[in-house]
Amino acid sequence: MSAATVLHQIVEYCLIAVVYDAIITSAVTVFHQLLIRRPLEMDVTPRKCTKIVTLHEHSAKTYREIASVVGVSLATVSRVIKLKQQTGSVSPKRKGKCGRKKKTTPRDDAFLL
What we know:
WH-like_DNA-bd_sf; Arc Repressor Mutant, subunit A; Domain-containing; mainly alpha; Homeodomain-like_sf
């Protein structure tokens, strides 16, 4: 075997080792995110809204850090803080007439009572 062939094989092994290391690092990162990070929830409870506002007002945390701590998305943190600044409250206001429509008329209600 010539020196060039041996050198070529060493370079190949080093490249394989680098690629293998990158694959392992990526896999570990993905597993870490799946196992350690809490899943993000679709709806935000009033308790989480209060926690978001409290962390924003009384700590130097960024929106991203608050989202990570509370377990919500960055957009949710931004929306809750914006709602608090605009309305002074974190509870959403119902718009219009919500809920199920009445099946009885006021006349039926009077008759039944």
